Amino acid sequence: MVSACRCSLFSTSGGRLLYFPLCLAALLLNGCATPQPVAAPTRGAEPLLRIGLVVEEPSVRIRGQGRVSIRGSGRSNLEPEEEVTITASSGGLLLNGQGAAAQRLTFQSQEANRHLLVNGRAYRGAVEVLSNGSTLTAVNVIGTEAYLRGVIGVEMGRRQPNEFAALEAQAIASRTYALKNRGRFRSSGFDLRAGVQDQAYLGVSRETELGSRAVQRTAGLVVTYRGDLIAAFFHSTCGYSTASPDEVFRTVRAVPYLRPVSDRRPSTGYYCDISPRFRWTVSWDGNELRDILRRTIPSVLGIDAELLEGFRGLRIHGLGPSRRVTELRFEVASGEIPVFGPDLRRVLLKPDNSPLGSTAFEASHETRDGGAVAARISGAGWGHGVGMCQWGAIGRARAGQTANQILTTYYPGTRIERSY
User: Fold this and answer.
1) Interatomic CA distance for residues 387 and 408, integer angstroms
2) Nearest to residue 40, comparing CAs of 234, 233, 251, 226?
3) Which of 82, 101, 134 is the last residue of a domain?
4) pLDDT by residue (tens digit) across 44-89?
5) What is the distance between the alpha carbons of residues 97 and 91, in angstroms, rounded to a whole number?
6) Structure confidence by residue, pLDDT tens digits, 100-133
7) pTM surpassing 0.70?
8) Are residues 269 and 171 in the same domain?
9) Dist. CA 288–CA 375, nearest whole Å
């Protein structure tokens, strides 16, 4: 993403409606997790993070590219490229099925630039394996900046030099997210998960030169609002505007810096219209959609599938501030079944059973003899739509915007400040 001369940019400056009790209960119980409130860290040393790589699984494989030390086991080291399998037993952890059971094993590479491999994937830092009784959890203990190198390449892919500012913006947003959510899974022995439940992290194999440079050039920088770290939500493609949290989440509170922001360019089009997922369509035949809903509505909303008898179609009933769908109603013989924004992407699955790209869509259906024979969704963008639009950031970087401009646009009223 653009040239590297950016250090001065980071200043501090119709029918009967049926509402079902089980549906309402499910709406209350199945909310999105709210990031824990944590004060902005004081300036000091770079924080260590604990990343859950393998969570509550029966076993894990570990080896080192070089010599590896082991703490907590009868063995003190592994030879280069030697692989061991740690399994969970009722008494604790076993190394290759042998020795005294341990509750915690710690692996550390003893050679510079030689990494640990967990289930074949290389990671910087140390790896702890924790006993959970019948399962185990493998945790990567790593400095924040090294962790971010393994995040940026996954979240943003391989970018070009004229897109460098977007990489810088992602590095700052990802650092803010990590520090804001540090300790979220403390009871399980780690801070963050390595998957999309938090932010994607795949270790050394997905690091890129430009991404690592963006992490280095923004080291310690975070996004704050009135002195506190922000909830730094981000997503792939907003489509035309970012979203308000209450349009797509159930338990994330509204804050001034998370509000709809237009992604329109001054001339024509949108900054994120370069995304391969800027516009999309999904079509179902009537039986196909009916079968999907018979599976998803009971599991997501707790409603009996029999209530879908006489399926007649679907219609949009509510739109949020960013014009995303906040309520969709399925027309059935006995009335209508409402599905609200936070549940839409899990209920209205595509024919391949994957979720809808976003809740920014228009809907239509065809009927014959009173029953639905086809339905179609025309959508915009990809992801929940809250916070920074990653493809929008890339488009803005190509247009010459700085990381500071990108971040303070998508998170209005915020500042870029140094944490450490």
Assistant:
1) 10
2) 226
3) 134
4) 789 999 999 999 999 999 999 999 999 998 889 999 999 999 999 9
5) 12
6) 899 999 999 999 889 999 999 999 999 999 999 8
7) yes
8) yes
9) 10
